């Protein structure tokens, strides 16, 4: 399994595939053929992931990650088992690639004088519009 030039090779023995029946429409084909793929990859205990990448992946708030650090990808977009297997592996590669790059640290900046003045001017304008709505001239 590989992705971008900075990719990580994940050996087959670290992936666990289970074939299940798909949900949704499809009639008899859905009821008798197990075309959906459930791909499991143990992120927390994988020896092929560098520690920094593992930490970034586990820190993600991804609903596909279990509490034990196992990534579960369910692929059932396509009608064939082979295409669903391929789709699950592509999604795993995309997930691992997302952990390869460290996020750039944010540099705190201060608002400029012009932006402060524009904001306050807009607030004054809005305030005068609202004040104009409340005045009543009873003649």
From TrEMBL:
UniProt GO MF annotations: peptidyl-tRNA hydrolase activity
Residue segments, region Disordered: 95-139
Keywords linked to the UniProt accession: Hydrolase
Family matches, as PROSITE patterns: RF_PROK_I
Highest taxon of source: Bacteria
Family annotation (InterPro entries): Pep_chain_release_fac_I
Entry keyword annotation includes Hydrolase: yes
Residue stretches of biased makeup (Basic and acidic residues): 114-139
EC code: 3.1.1.29
Domain Prokaryotic-type class I peptide chain release factors: 21-37
Keyword check for Hydrolase: yes
Stored PANTHER family: PEPTIDYL-TRNA HYDROLASE ARFB
Protein name: Alternative ribosome rescue aminoacyl-tRNA hydrolase ArfB
Organism: Lysobacter korlensis
């Amino acid at each position: 399994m590989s992705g971008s030039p900075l990719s990580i090779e994940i050996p087959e023995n670290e992936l666990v595939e289970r074939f299940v029946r798909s949900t949704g429409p499809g009639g008899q084909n859905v009821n008798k053929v197990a075309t959906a793929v459930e791909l499991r990859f143990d992120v927390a205990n994988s020896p092929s992931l560098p520690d920094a990448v593992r930490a970034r992946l586990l820190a993600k708030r991804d609903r596909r990650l279990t509490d034990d650090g196992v990534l579960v990808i369910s692929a059932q977009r396509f009608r064939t088992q082979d295409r669903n297997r391929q789709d699950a592996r592509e999604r795993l590669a995309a997930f691992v690639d997302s952990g390869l790059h460290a996020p750039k640290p944010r540099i705190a900046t201060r608002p400029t004088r012009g932006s402060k003045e524009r904001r306050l001017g807009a607030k004054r304008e809005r305030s005068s519009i609202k004040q104009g709505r409340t005045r009543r001239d009873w003649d």
